[in-house]
Every structure is written in C-alpha cells, then in structure tokens.
Task: structure prediction
Amino acid sequence: MTVLASALDPAGADHTAHREAMLAKLAELEGEHAKALAGGGEKYVQRHRKRGKLLVRERIEMLLDPDTPFLELSPLAGWGSDYPVGASIVTGIGVISGVECLISANDPTVRGGASNPWTLKKALRAHEIARANRLPLVSLVESGGADLPSQKEIFIPGGAMFRDLTRLSASGIPTIAVVFGNSTAGGAYIPGMSDHVIMVKERSKVFLGGPPLVKMATGEESDDESLGGAEMHARTSGLADYFATDEPDALRQARRVVARLNWRKAQSDPGPAEPPKYDTEELLGIVPSDLKVPFDPREVIARIVDGSDFDEFKPLYGHSLATGWAALHGYPVGVLANAQGVLFSEESQKAAQFIQLANQRDIPLLFLHNTTGYMVGRDYEQGGIIKHGAMMINAVSNSRVPHLSVLIGASYGAGHYGMCGRAYDPRFLFAWPSAKSAVMGPQQLAGVMSIVARQSAAAKGQPYDEEADAALRAMVEQQIESESLPLFLSGRLYDDGVIDPRDTRTVLGLCLSALHTAPVEGARGGFGVFRM
Result:
C-alpha cells in the first residue's frame, strides 16, 4: 500500500501548541489582508460609490462565472513600504465563461488607481504568469497613470507593461481591456495594445494628454468627451471595439468576448480526484514555531495529495529529502519535500535524478521547502557537497516541466535555490505563515559577522569590545529575523501570496489547472554538464 500512514496526534500537546502559534500568525495575516481589501479607505470608497461605480472586487466578482473561485495573487504587495498594502491593483486567476483567465484590475480608490513601483512589479508578475501558463489577460482599467512623485522608479521599467501586452498578443494569448474611467498618458497604451477593447459611455476617458496638457502643449481648447470619451473612440477613432452603456454592461460584454475566443486547454482534463485520508485542519499543527525542531513533511503530503497516496522514490537513500509521485486534484505531480532541514550529497543526487525522471514523464514538480541549506564542514566539502549541490541546482534550473513551490518552514541559503526559489522561475510560489527565508538563520548570520570582526581585531593586535559585539549581534539578529518573515518577503513579491495551510490543496489545485492551459513538456536532455 502506498497510502501514507500518519503518526500525528492531533490531541497531543505539541500539535496543540503548534496549532495555536499558527492561528496567531494567521490572525496577523488576516489583519494585513484587511488593509488591502479596504483600498483607499472609507472616504475614497464612499466617493467612488457616489459616482455610481463598482469597487474593484465587485467588478471582478461580476466578471467571473457564478460560484467559481478567484485565486488572488500578491495581495500583500507593497507591505512595509511607503505605499498602501496591495499596491493599488488586484491580480489573480479566475474563470470567465468557462475559461481560466489572468485578471489585472486597478483599484481607483487608492490615489485614483495611480501606479507606484509596487503596482508595476505586481502587474509585471501577473503578465509573467499569463505568458507562462497561456492564460488570456483581462485588464480592468481605471487609473490616472503613474504616481508622479515616484516617476523616477516607474518610467523606465514601466515600458515593460506595454511590451508584455504586445508579446502576449504576438504569441496568440488574447488580451482584453475593459476601461471604466481614466486611462491616460502611458495608460492609454493598455487599451491601445490590447486585442479587444470595451469602453463605458460617459465614463471611459482614454487620451495621451488630457485637456489641460493639450491646452499647454498646443493652445487647443477641448473637453474630455471629444478628446477621449467612449463614444468618440467607438465612432471616430476606432480604439473602442465595444461600447457599453454602464459597468455591468461592460462586464457582460467582456464575458461574451471571452466566450467567443475559442480558447482551449492544451492538456486533457485531469483524472478523478479522491480527497486526502486525513483532515486538512491538522495542517495547522504540523510545523513547530521553532523551525530548528524537525518535522516529517510526509504528514503535510498526506493531507494535500489525492487519497494521501504517495509512491516514494528512493525512500532508503538521502533521508532528509522525501521524493515521490502523487496526484493532486487529479493532476500527476512529483513531490520534493525537505525532511530534516539540511541537504547532503545523497539528497542532492537523489533530487537531480528525480527531476530528470519528471522531465522524461512530463510531470509537474511540487517543492515543499524546509531547508537550512547544503551541509558544510571539512568532511562534506571533501565528499563533494559543492558539485552535488550544483548538480541539484543545475537540474532545477534546466528542468522544463512546471514547478510549484510552497515555503512551509525554513528556506535558507543555496537550499532555497535547489528547492526552486523565486529566482528559478517556479510557475507559482506561496508561503505558509510559518515560513522564513534568508541567506542563513539570524543567529548564524550574526555569529559569522562576530567571528569575522573578532578575527580582524586579533589580526590588528587590537582588543575586542565584547559589549559592542553583543549589541551588534542582537541588532543583526533582529534585522535578519524581521527580513526573513513571510509578510516582508511577500510585500516584495518574492512569493505569490501567504496562504492558510488549510488552503494549500485548493490553491495548488487551482494552479495546476491553470498551468495545464499550456503544454506540459519536460526537457529531453539539455541539463548542462553534471560534475561527477
């Protein structure tokens, strides 16, 4: 039998303590998500409503098929910065007229939907997801353009927004713009470069320069409607393909456009999906609050894969990395999950072989992170840990099947790379509230800095200030700890969202469904030179 047996005691003291710690982290996470949901605050929400307009998430809900999920991406973008949480834009994956689409929607209650540096990063990440997974892109536009005080950080990289739209179209991925209000200056190129454009009567305003700028530049007197109104663009300029009477009509027409795309998934429908044998509620109590305490990742696997059925690959070799085959919502997956934190030579070689096998079979890979990195020390260096770690990273780098990553515990050092961290282009990467990621753990990093400083003082024949050393170590530990936390990392878009562990199976299922819109094909060779 390949159904995983669980040794977890949901009533035990450890599980209860871990669960309570996770629930506290989830409560903090919920508070931060609420800031994104609040948009620009009650004052600007009410002003928006008085204009007879729908809020951004109301537009998305009306656009989606009834009772279908919406996987919101990067909801904490901008966290810890000078800009509002959420970055004045909502992005995510949802089903429109039976078609999975990437939706990118400005929130006009936040500074009129103006784009700040984090808005740009979040939008570009959404475009990347649309391209990699061949998802039609639907832009719900209402934005005053760049947030001018931050233009120096937006103008140059901002051109990638329009580049992406044209490249998506060139690769046959449909792009649709629904314009609800302002789409001015550079923002006018969003409808200008989309395949299909819908504008709303007496609401849409699309022009390169508004009346004040036209007056300054040319001396011409003009008004919004004649310069860039929906009716003008529908009747005269031809920029608008569809003319809507109001917002619900615009969203109805957008649904019809998607319905007529003749868009099909590249892959066949998944097989039947059996729920896990164990309660997903138990995921809350698996990961200790102290990540130095080991836990068995098979307990996580047993609660997210179909039927808790896991065919483990090389179970007696490389014990600190569990690898094996499973299905998730009917889709086949290969799973790599860190068991005891440290990656040794055996684990690295095992991972490289497993990744090659997944590519031979065209099976997506799921990485569950809990690693402190590759093992260090004289014996391990002499045993070839560098070349074996490089072999694993080589395999991850050149693998062509889709990768999904979930940070459930630690994800430090080069182990983060070997387990397909952000720099290795996973299709999607999420984190649990328990996760931490950095060059190394806070205590180790502070300790290394202390040792280097102590050796430098000794080399110069100078006395070492122990009191200053203790203060420096405490400061460094505090800094690295704060910069390792999921909120900090998610705010910088190093993941696609921090998720409730109980939602892991659902989130991964939505991602697997989305990525199967594109062909799933592995590399046949082409892994570069594996050093032996």
